[in-house]
Amino acid sequence: MTDRLDSIESQQKINTANIGDLVRLSENVLLAAERNLETINKNAKAAERNLAEIERNSAKIERNSAKIERNSAAIAESDTRFNILIQEMRADRRAFLQAIESLNSRVDNLEQTDQ
Q1: Cα–Cα distance between 91 and 101 in angstroms, integer?
Q2: Kind and range of the H or E element at 105?
Q3: CA atoms within 13 A on the CB side of 14
Q4: How far is 24 from 33, CA to CA, in rounded Å?
Q5: pLDDT tens digits along 46-88
Q6: 100-109, long-range: CB within 8 Å, 24+ apart, which pairs?
Q7: Cα–chain-centroid distance for residue 53?
Q8: Distance of CA 61 to the CA centre of its chain
Q9: Cα angle value 66/72/76 (rounded, 5°)
Q10: Dihedral sign for Cα atoms in the order 16, 18, 23, 27
Q11: Which range, of 3-7, 17-21, 41-45, 78-82, averages the lowest pLDDT?
Q12: pLDDT value of position 26
């Protein structure tokens, strides 16, 4: 019976050592899990900041797009006005050249009648 008790006692020591190993392993796993949870929380906060930045940038893009549309319309309107002014200046130039030709013709006529 002593052998049997020695065997049980030996097995109990092995089991106690195994339980100690399991406890240490569990503690290590728990520490690793806590570090992983901290990392996940940091990443979640970073993702929230990134999402907020994306939302701010999206709003800026929308505002800038509206400004671009207004500027494009203003540019098109200015281009139209500029083209109209060019046409008017060309017409004025033609009228001015005709007036000069008419005056030259009158001067020629006056010079011929004076001779």
Answers
A1: 15
A2: helix 2-114
A3: 6
A4: 14
A5: 999 999 999 999 999 999 999 999 999 999 999 999 999 999 9
A6: none
A7: 9
A8: 7
A9: 150
A10: positive
A11: 3-7
A12: 96
Query: Any idea what the Cα angle at residue 102 is, between residues 99 and 107, rounded to 5°?
Result: 125
Place of tokens 């009228």: 95
Owner of token pair 């979640």: 44
Which tokens go with 62?
């929308």
Nearest to 56 by CA among 44, 64, 45, 67: 64
Structure tokens at 101: 């030709």
Q: What CA–CA distance (Å, rounded) separates 78 from 75?
A: 5
Question: How far is residue 87's CA from residue 97's CA, in Å, rounded to a whole number?
Answer: 15
Per the listing, tokens 């207004």 go with 70
Q: Token pair for residue 85?
A: 């002014």
- HSE value, Cβ hemisphere, 13 Å, CA-based, for 62: 6
